Every structure is written in structure tokens, then in C-alpha cells.
Amino acid sequence: MGARIVKLWMTVAIALALGAGDAAAQQAAQAPAPTKERVEDRLQRIDTFLNISSAAAKIKESDSAKAKAQREQAVAKYEEARAQAANGGYAAASESLTQAWRLMYEAVNLLEESSSTHAKKKQHFAARLESVKALLAAQNRVWKEKHGAQKNAVATGAEKLKAEAENLLALDHVDEALAKLKEAYNKTTDSLIEMRQGETKERLLTFSTPEDEYKYEREKNLSLRALVDEMIEQKKPDENALARIREFVAEGERAGTRAESTAASGKFSEAIEEMGLSTKEYIKAIRAAGVYIPG
After folding, report:
1. How far apart are the C-alpha atoms of 163 and 198, rounded to whole Å?
2. pLDDT band, residue 27 (cuts 50/70/90)
3. What pLDDT is recorded for position 250?
4. Backbone conformation region of residue 40, classed left if phi is above 0, alpha if psi is from -120 to 50, else beta
5. How far is CA 198 from the centre of its chain?
6. pLDDT single digits (tens) 230-245
7. Inter-residue contact 36 to 90 (CB < 8 Å)
8. pLDDT of the residue at 197
9. Is pLDDT at 16 greater than 70 in this prediction?
10. 269-295 pLDDT per residue, tens
11. What is the Cα Rg of the chain in Å?
């Protein structure tokens, strides 16, 4: 809806500018020599476009530094045209007015692009927020299973980050809100995976042997498989989504079985690749349930 509104007032703005008597550069070669009357008429019309039109108001109210800077350039070129006309340089003034119109037209386009990007970021925030809520609910339940009434510091910290993100969004600080929500998301996801592995430890970055790496990948794989069930219970996907989830899980289990067989024969490097394929299928299943996780 917002994008359509922007396009509407952009169209009105362009119509105003075209009514300024030049129809941009397309008619410049065919236009009669500028006269005082024609230039004064264009000055009035383009002044409206730059300062009074809905397009001008939208740019002034926006957070788009690029659009505002472009409009300022248009205003500066317009003032140059006024000075030229005052000194009788009507041809030069006419050219400056054409340039002012072009600059303002570009400012309108820049604002439209900015508005579209801003709206998409807000949509991304909303989707990520739902994922964080689902992950937090799962994390709390697994924590209670393992630790009972013991204080859940991870959930408390993640909840605080989530609240800070929502406050930032309310102030329209979308980039900062997304960054804060990502912190909450990562904290919750890491905790869930660690608990499902049955221990809390830092992730290894190097391994002594391919077998050690395979064991780590297998633990991660089993944790994500358990997380699929957690997300199904939390998100309660519809039948179509559930069918897709089952397909991903089935493929993941087939790849996992192949990995186990390969590892049993001592081919751990190949087994790691097979287990990675299985893990990717479980990640797809979690995403199909409506929760985005990286991978």
C-alpha cells in the first residue's frame, strides 16, 4: 500500500513538472526561444514542485538523506535560474530550470527506493520476531526439562534483547532494531542446540581428526532433528507445510543413515559430507515450520 501511495504522489509531482512548460528535455529542441513571460511562468510552477507539492513535503518529512540532498541541489539550481532571469538571461534561466526539474525528479525516485527498502526491513523484522518468540518458547521448555526451576539466564537475556529491539522499532530505528533482534535470535538458537546436545560447550573450530569432526557434526545434526519437533509443536504448521516438513525430515534421515554407514567403515571425511546434507534438510524443515535459522 505504501509503495502505491509513493508512486501516486510521484506521478502527481511529475505531472506538475511537465506542466512547467518544458516536458523535460524531450521538447527542449522544439521549444520557442525563452521569453520573460515563459520563464516567469516556469519559475512559479517549478517553485511549487520543489517547495509546496506533496512530493516536496514527503521528501522533507522523510529520513532519506540522499533524497533530501538531491532536492537541495534542485533548489540551488532553481535559485540560480531566478538570478539569471533577474539579469535578463532567460535562455540560461530556462536551462537551469530544466536541470532543477531533473534533480527533483531524481530526488522523488530516491525517496521511492528508500521507502521500499524501509518497508522490506520492517517486514523482515516482523518475521524474525516471530521466529525469536517461537525459539524462546522452545528454549524455555527444554530448559525446564533439564534444569527445572533453576534460573534461565539465557532466556532472560534474550527477552531483554527482544524488548530493546521492539522499542527501537517503535522509534523507527529499523537497522538498530534488526541488529538487536539478531542478538536475541543467535543467543536463543545457540542455547537450544547446546541443550539438545546434552551439554554446554563452545563450538569447536578445529578438530584433531576427521572422526572428531564427524562426531561433532553428528551431535549438531541430532540437535537440529530434535529442534524440528520443537518447532512443529510451537508453530503448529498447516497440512501443506507439515507435508513439506516430513519430506525434508525423511530426506535428512536417509542422508543421516548413509553417513552412519560410511562412518562405520572408517570413511569419516565422506561421512562428514553426508551428515552435512542431512543437517541441511533439517534446517529446511525448521524453516518450513516458519522459523528461520541460518545454515
Report:
1. 29
2. very low
3. 95
4. alpha
5. 34
6. 778 777 889 999 999 9
7. yes
8. 55
9. no
10. 999 999 999 999 999 998 898 877 766
11. 30
Q: Under the phi-then-psi rule, with left for phi > 0, alpha for psi from -120 to 50, and beta for the rest, what region is 294?
A: beta
Cβ neighbours around 165 below 10 Å, total: 25
- Work out the average pLDDT over 87-110: 90
Give the three cell numbers for residue 182. 539478531
* Largest Cα–Cα separation, the chain: 92
Say which residues have a Cβ less than 8 Å from residue 166's Cβ, sequence separation at least 6: 129, 177
Single-letter code of the amino acid located at 258: R
Distances 21 to 28, 30, 37, 85, 117 between C-alpha atoms, Å: 10, 12, 11, 16, 33
Query: Which grid cell is 28?
Result: 527542449
Nearest Cα neighbor of 50 from 108, 4, 91 is 108
The CB-side HSE value for 281 (13 A sphere, CA atoms) comes to 21
The grid coordinates listed for 37 are 513571460
Neighbours of 52 (CB within 10 A): 11
Distance CA 117, CA 119 (A): 5
Kindly state the average pLDDT of the residues 99-119: 83
End-to-end CA distance of the chain: 33
Contacts of 207 (CB under 8 A, 6+ apart): 213, 216
Look up residue 19 and give its DSSP letter.
Answer: I
